[in-house]
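Long-time lurker. I teach an intro course on protein structure, and each term I like to show students one example going from raw sequence to a predicted 3D structure in token notation. This year I'd like something fresh instead of my usual example. Would anyone be willing to generate the tokens for the chain below so I can use it in lecture? Attribution to the forum is fine with me.
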Amino acid sequence: MTDPVRRLPTLLEAVLSVGTDLELRATLQHIVDGAAELTGARYAALGMVDPGHDGLVEIRTVGRPETEAGTEVEAGAGDSQGVVGRSDEFIGVPIRVNDEMFGTLYVADKFAGTFTDEDEQLLRVLATQAGIAIGNARLYESARQRERWIEGAAAVTTALLTGETAADALMTVAERARILAGASAGVILQPTAEGGMEIVTASTLDDPGDIVGTTIAPGSPVLEQLLGGEPVFVEDSATDPRMTTHVRKRFGPSMMLPLQADGRLIGTLALPRRRGDRPYTSVERLLATQFASQAALALVLADAQHSRERLAVFEDRDRIARDLHDLVVQRLFATGMMLESTQRRSMGDGAAQDVHDVLGRAVDELQSTIQEVRTAIFALQQPPADAPTTFRGKVLRETAGAAAVLGFQPSARFTGAVESRISEPVAGQLLASLRHALAAASRRAGVSVIEVTVDSTATLPDGRAGVRLTVYDDSGTGTTVTWASPL
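-- Reply from a regular --
Happy to contribute to a lecture. Here you go:
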């Protein structure tokens, strides 16, 4: 029997090597290497009870045990016969982490002689130290993962609050989540008007292909959970009966996480891995769910900030428009009245004809300037060009802009299906004519009423169907401007 004292340095070296690395996979390899060296075994292996708990899919082995037929034997978790390759000469000792069974450490086929009780005792000492090292490695890996996800969530929040568009914001969330999760794709689904969900954004390692636009139809087994704001975890997207889209065959393990904040469901963040990739661990699921909640809150805050910025722009434009009307237009108008008065007084003096002509040109220039300033005021009252609105909304927006100059709100009336009948080019021409008519009406004295009518059921003189715009004001005996065009 070997003197145990002489083997203490080897034991100490094995124990120390087990704790030299904080990365879990490397720690497991040190354990297997140390077991083989400590016992003088030709083969060593580690069978884990639940490899998926730590995201591990393979068993660490030293040597290559073979069957009688000469083929390699795969080490199975807890399967001693699979680990040692049908050898009768083996030892197996359990490894526990925080009083929970982690797996079994095996050695087989000693180089010299047979395994002794001393070998088993030394292996148990190593297994005890291995349990501590594995626990430390787990804590370190968990801390690193949490740090990465927290940093990722902070980066997303910072990016979203710097003024990205809605589409860019969703892509930022999808791409950052894909990288953090080690997923094949990061996609965002949003509810559709029909009651389903549609992929609106996709970040992938390669060409996303036909992923964007893929729809989960109403009635899908997974849809109720997603629309209800529940997370869904899938072991294999290709075979799970809840998955119904045509792209599911490309993916394996997947997480589908709600993007929800303050009771508002923005959509779902899906993080699928390729088929055959390891499943998500419980820690990864928890961290990804927390990331999705933080990202949803950042999206809501970014949207609110964008709305505040737009409101500030509108308020500033309204202020400028009021200043132009109250100060510039009134002063120009007063100057014009003074010049007209001077022009009338100079008409009786033949020698002053040159002065009369100059004053006339000055009056014309002032009136032209007033018209241009009023047009600028109308433009300032309009929301940005990219603001989504219907045709009816655009007409109402023009009349609302004119109200800032007129001091009262023009009325607007619509006849027929103006939204569906009037084409985009015709709508643009109509709005330009309306803007011109409103500007002309604002220059007339004594205007207190303006009535705008848009009739999409009109018939043109040549018999064609058309649209007719009528702008009436009560200046003088009443002024009516009419514009018509084919649909």
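Some talking points for your students: The chain has a mean pLDDT of 76. The longest strand covers residues 100-110.
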